[in-house]
Amino acid sequence: MAIRFLLIFLFLLTGIHTFEAQEKVAKKITVTGTVTDSENKPVNGAHIYVDSVKTRVKTNKKGYYKIKLHSKTKLVTVFSINNGMLNFNYNGEQNLNFIFSKNNAVITERELMQLGYKTSSKKGNTQNKKQGYDNYKDIFELLRARFPNVRVVRETITIRGGGTSMTGNNTPLFLVNGSQVSSIASIAPIDIKSIVVLKGSNTGLYGARGAAGVIKIELKY
Question: Which top CATH class is 27-119?
């Protein structure tokens, strides 16, 4: 009789643990979706925030993302440097698509922080403080302080000894994550992983485009 009760007890105990384990699994919900702009084009590199905290998840070239959310999640936010931010009050959905409107306000990640959003985990913040990039109010102040060979007058950037392009323009070539951009004004220092300034013979790889120097920026996403 004692053995029988012991077996029943062990069975019930195992059932309780199994139920608890299933509950823990059930608390995570896989959510997928796409992010598109006002012209229905996919938005690449848009970050997903969960309850106002930035995650490592971002959209791919097709605007697609996939993330696991806790069942108690209340707010899902998508942020794009070129399109701004969108919020969704989460209620257990498994598919969330975000569409930016044409008149959607564009803001910087620093402005997002001022609204109470957190852009990284403690580990990420520690690493960023080690780099020191988050100590600057904007990228122009960062360049002035960290790169003596870069001359910054308001929002005009030139590289000392960088030469002049064939068109007489002394504005350096800006590369962000390997892609050429016309301006880096909207980049928040906290988003920057690394900056490299090239001039002279070191710009040969870029031909005439790099005649006035090259500023290469790698972002954290």
Answer: mainly beta
DSSP string of 2-59?
HHHHHHHHHHHHHHHHHHHHHHHHHTEEEEEEEEE-TTS-B-TTPEEEETTEEEEEE-
- Structural domain spans, the chain: 27-119, 128-219
Paired tokens of 49: 């925030």
Neighbours of 99 (CB within 10 A): 15
Residue that has been written with the tokens 């019930």 in this structure: 12
Q: What is the DSSP string of 80-122?
A: ETTTEEEEEE-SS-SB--EE--TTPPP--HHHHHHTT-B-S-H
Which class is 128-219 in CATH?
Answer: mainly beta
pLDDT of the residue at 48: 94
Do 53 and 117 contact (CB within 8 A), yes or no?
yes
**pTM greater than the 0.90 cutoff:** no
Do the domains at 27-119 and 128-219 have one common CATH topology?
A: no
The number of angstroms, rounded, from the C-alpha of 58 to the middle of its chain's C-alpha atoms is 7
Q: How far is CA 77 from CA 14, 40, 55, 105, in A?
A: 40, 19, 10, 14
CA separation for the pair 101, 105 (Å, rounded): 9
Tens digits of residue pLDDT in 157-214: 998 876 665 556 788 999 999 899 989 998 988 888 888 888 887 887 888 888 888 9
Only one residue has tokens 């985990």, namely 121
